[in-house]
Amino acid sequence: MSHEILVAGETLIDFLPERPGPISSVDGFERRPGGAPANVAVALARLECVPLFWSRVGDDPFGDYLLETLAEYGVPGRFLETDPSAKTSLAFVTHDESGDRSFSFYRDDTADTRMETGRIDDSVLAGLEWVHAGGVALSSGRSREATLDLLERAAARGCTVSFDPNARPELWPDEATFREVVRDALASVDVLKATREELEALGFGGESTEAVARDALAAGPHTVLATRGGDGSIAVADDDAPWSEAVAEHPGYEADVVDTTGAGDAFVAGTIAAMRDGQDLEATLAFANAVGAAATTAPGAMTALPNREAVREISRR
């Protein structure tokens, strides 16, 4: 099978709480596979756009479980690495009553912080149309340099590059470092997906979400998609985008929300799938919103990702 998409970044274990509330009040957690880029890779596979996935796990039972799970979802193992001297990252998730979540990470020198520059060589990039990465890989360790290098070389080779800051403040030394490193990455990015809060943390401003997203175009992307949770999303594009200058907005879809973990990653996968299908900006936004909404209707991130039939069902609402 020919793979024209590469996703790069962390895969880890999410521990989901048995009930909503702060971590100090939760007695039990359930193990689930996670990590934003891993979720994007699986979501693309579920949408029949199977990608390559570059990631690194520890030589431990958690790493074994993640590799087995990715294989079950049909994600190729060509660039899935096992680090013999590091552990797999863990994240404990807590929910409020509306399903919104927060994270506590155990990620000190874990395997996904130790990805190595040059692992994806130019011969691999020559066969790709699209490369996607997220911000967590930029937060620490060798993975920062390796990810920045990948995005720069992918852009130079003519790949479409997408990026999700996936801001997790607890993983960064301070907001200034987050802003500096991510804005360096944006110079190589074509398609940026972010929340308004993330865009503002990166130093972009404006009175409306559209204005903030438009301000971000100057940093490098030709298209910025700003998600607004249950209120849908808005996208802006400049003259370098496939549709030329455009603005699109979508109110989102009704969904019986159980867990929002992974919804943004599903939205990213929907964006990539729709853009590669040649959809215009408005249709891309509608499809991405439907994928994201469908992903909130079951617990977990990877385990809740929808296939195209589930997306069609949400779209009919």
UniProtKB/TrEMBL annotation:
GO molecular function, one term: ATP binding
Domain Carbohydrate kinase PfkB as annotated: residue spans: 3-307
Organism name: Natrialba swarupiae
One Pfam assignment: PfkB
Cross-referenced PANTHER family: HEXOKINASE FAMILY MEMBER, PSEUDOURIDINE KINASE-RELATED
Similarity annotation: Belongs to the carbohydrate kinase PfkB family.
InterPro entries the record matches: PfkB_Carbo_kinase (IPR050306), PfkB_dom (IPR011611), Ribokinase-like (IPR029056)
Transmembrane segments: none
Highest taxon of source: Archaea
Keywords: ATP-binding, Kinase, Nucleotide-binding, Transferase
Chain segments annotated as coiled-coil in the UniProt record: none
Protein name: Carbohydrate kinase
